[in-house]
Design a protein that fits this description.
Layout: H1 2-23, E1 25-27, E2 41-43, H2 47-67, H3 75-89, E3 105-109, E4 116-119, E5 123-127, H4 128-133, H5 138-153, H6 156-171, H7 180-196, H8 202-218, H9 225-235, H10 243-247, H11 252-264, H12 266-273
Helix pairs in contact: 2-7, 3-5, 5-8, 5-9, 6-7, 8-11, 8-12, 9-11
The structure holds zinc ion.
Zinc ion binds near residues 200, 205, 208 and 248.
């Protein structure tokens, strides 16, 4: 009896391990660029699955905002944000060739939140609170949008959702034999959570910072604005710290890294300005 249980558990372990390994792929989402971001990522959820979830969530959110009269209200603001985003998007091919053909969307939401994000597949939102409360410059806007675009290029949301799917599968290891269908369904659930709601890991932040300054420099925006941006963000705290800080923990290390990497891409900026 005891032996039966043990061998059953053992075969379940093998089965789940097999499921995980077939579902798991190791990828290099981006080229390294001048800033040299090189790290292989393990993915359990397909990019297609996540993009579909993002597209759906984004269009639902836009419809909601429109109903509240909070979508693209200020035409000058929208023009400004889209001009900057378009120049950054034009540079994404340096990191991954397919990004140029993504269905990019850029919208401004009227909300007090100091926030901005880019969902998988290039669905961008910038909150009016970020622009107004920080009295943000064009270079600083390029820094924050470039940073968010970098998260999407590196598919950090997919990576995070994959990690959670793995954790979730391992927890249920002893209690149930997972079917592939279940795993897929769970993956979709984690994909939603991973889109914009969870804090980024430090390594993801560092990668987005470095790729972000390179995108900005290549697009002709001063990469050093990333430093003033995060300093402003830190000071904007008070009783209600910026929403962006809750998903993008800032620190002295970050400022140091940004100082270093924005200096490295200065030649690209000077070239773009010429
Ligand atoms: Zn970030």
């Amino acid at each position: 009896m005891k032996r039966n249980v043990r061998s059953c558990l053992a075969s379940m372990t093998v089965l789940v391990a097999a499921l995980l390994s077939t579902a798991c792929e190791t990828v290099q989402t981006t080229q390294s660029g001048v800033v040299g971001v090189e790290r292989q990522q393990r993915m359990m959820i397909s990019a297609q699955e996540l993009d579909q979830a993002a597209t759906k969530q984004y269009s639902e959110l836009l419809a909601e905002q429109k109903k509240k009269n909070a979508l693209n209200v200020n035409a000058a603001q929208v023009r400004r944000v889209r001009t900057i985003a378009d120049r950054l998007i034009a540079q994404t091919g340096v990191f991954r060739a397919d990004a140029r053909s993504w269905k990019w969307e850029v919208n401004v939401l009227t909300a007090d939140d100091v926030n901005a994000w880019c969902m998988p597949g290039g669905k961008i939102a910038v909150y009016s609170g970020l622009i107004e409360k920080l009295k943000i410059t064009d270079d600083e806007l390029a820094a924050v949008i470039g940073h968010e675009i970098a998260h999407a290029l590196r598919e950090h949301a997919r990576e995070r959702a994959s990690e959670q799917a793995v954790a979730g599968s391992l927890i249920s290891l002893g209690s149930a034999i997972l079917g592939v269908g279940d795993l897929g369904q769970q993956g979709a659930q984690y994909a939603y959570m991973g889109l914009i709601g969870l804090p980024n890991s430090r390594s993801h932040e560092t990668e987005a910072d470095r790729i972000g300054v390179e995108l900005a420099a290549r697009a002709g925006y001063d990469p050093r604005a990333a430093i003033t941006l995060w300093k402003k963000m830190g000071q904007a705290g008070g009783s209600a710290p910026p929403k962006l800080l809750s998903t993008h923990p800032s620190s002295e290390d970050r400022i140091r890294d940004l100082t270093d990497y924005s200096a490295r891409v200065m030649p690209l900026y000077q070239q773009a300005r010429r």
